[in-house]
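User: Please predict the structure of the protein below. I'd like the answer in structure-token form so I can feed it into my own downstream comparison script.

Assistant: Understood. Taking the following sequence of 611 residues as input:
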Amino acid sequence: MDHINNNNNNNNGGSGSTSSQPLFLIGNIGADHIVRSLSQTTNPFQTIEKFQKEYMFGKENALPALSLLDLHNVPRAEVYLRILERLKLNLLKQIETTHDDKNLEALLEQTFPYISFEELRAVPFAIMKQMPEVPPRFLRKLIDTKLYEHCPIEVKRQMWLMDESLFRTKVDTLLNDYIKSVSGEGSGSWMQPNDLFEIISSETTLLPAKRRESSEVLKELIHFVGKSVALYNMILHFFRTLFVSNKKPALCNLRADFLMALHDANVSEIYELDPCHKFAWTLDACVRDSVVEIRRIRELQTFFSTVSSTDPIIGDLAMITANPFTSHMLVRTAFATLVTVVQKEAIPKDDETLNYVTWLLSISLQAHSMIQTQNFSLPKQTKEISQTLYPLLAFKIMDDQSRKPNQPPEELDPELEMMFRSNNIARKIILYYILTRVAQRDLLAVEQLIHFILNMNDISDDLDFFQSLVTQVINCKDLRMAALVIDSTLLPIRNTQREHSTFIHRNLVRFLVESHLRLPTKELVNYINKFISGSHDDKVTQGYRTLLEKASPRLNNKNVPLLFNYLYDNVVENSEVGSSSRSNITQATTPPISSEDDPMSDEEEEEEEEE
């Protein structure tokens, strides 16, 4: 191919030349040249022949080879394409070994006008990928074009540094998907609760590094930033601003895990420059071990000795501590330490681990207000917790551990409930204690503490507790405990805090699916009728369908018409099935089961309760 001098940048089908480089007869330029030549001649055949001779590949030297290929019926177009691919591959190999920025930029000047051609764009892309800094004039011409998505990630990173809003759009989509997925709003199984507030760490729980390794969001974020500290800082800024607006703990989890994922991937160019790295690494080790040991406390104390009491870094430290995996580990450690103090008959305020873990917990609970107000200061040790809450809770623990099974517990000190209402640390630890009592099937203790929950004005910050509460009710396999928690707590809260009614409904259905075999048919039907509400939710519907599949011999459109109407209405509303959907729902039903056929007899139920 030869070239001609042509400065009309709008006719080449590309993004325009960056200089007065001669343009090859490709795309619109070649077509325009031919049209112009034919319109100005009286002998078109001669013009075509002249054009072929002038611009043919290899001039006369290639004629013998081309003629031979013609005899074998190989199209000229195919020949030229193969030659182009071979030349392109050779050029790309040379580009990969070229490190002279001036030569690369000169070559980019010559090839950039053809970047819109799919067959040629690999060349300018390879050049830009090889350049440490692509001149901005090239990047600006790509930002607002369809070619942006085709650019190599190395080039996109430089575009993002030029246009933060472009990067923000890219990252926001990823963050919103992540928040939906961890809050149960995204895709995936509806019955996979993230019970971070569990009594003990499950043996099946992934270690922090393994959990991060399986996160597609973290992989994408690491891919986005590469080794760019500037892009890393942009993402941290996005975390903070989004956390201020929606207060989602998932963003604190991302703040901690993103840093540690870079550590796992050995991207030292970034994580070594993050002043929070040592702090995050130490807490990550505590989460891995499910406890804050005294040696870790010493490491954290050494770290904080280097931080000014008003350093803005405190906001990031608070976010890392507010990571749900960390904050719940702190709650577990604080409670376990308090139990140990009670067993030793020691004084809570004198226990170093208890005091330090409580202080870390106070930092985590102030993360949102710190970043929102930009008032960065480390909290002081509060005497209210160590000298009031812990002694009162210690007395409650001793009473619950020492009294006989049917013996009523001692009357609660009114100050305990006051602290539950006014102090966030007290609320978290008392809620955790309620979970332990549910797990121990201590019906009297739970009954005594349950009104604490009912008097909560807003459960937004404690949804993880309610999720774990349902899990403990399922695991303890006590129908009386289930009735107490569901009828006296979850249903009233669903009715009073409407913004969280769907969340509560999902967990109620989860209870039915997991516990239906232990429930007599009459009680199962009663629960379904209580739980069904007018609002529709895909996760709730999916749960009810699962329940119907598992308990179909006991459920039919005669004893639970509300359930079948709910499923039918939801199918029609979402147009998931055709007009025969209602008949499909009812086909699997059977006549109502009699009491004699109930999978759990009264005697079996009594035996279950005694166990």
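That's the full token string. Residues 1-22, 185-194, 199-204, 575-611 have pLDDT under 50 and may be disordered.
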